[in-house]
Amino acid sequence: MFPSTDFNQLCHRRSELHRAGAIAEAIPLQAEILRRLETQGKSARDIANAHNYLSVLYTKNGDYLSAEFHAHRALNLHEGGTTPKDRDALACYSMTMARILCLLGNREEAIHHAEIALREWVSVHQPSTDFLIARQNEVSSMKTGTWTNPLTLS
Question: Is the bond preceding residue 84 a cis peptide, omega within 30 degrees?
Answer without folding.
Answer: no
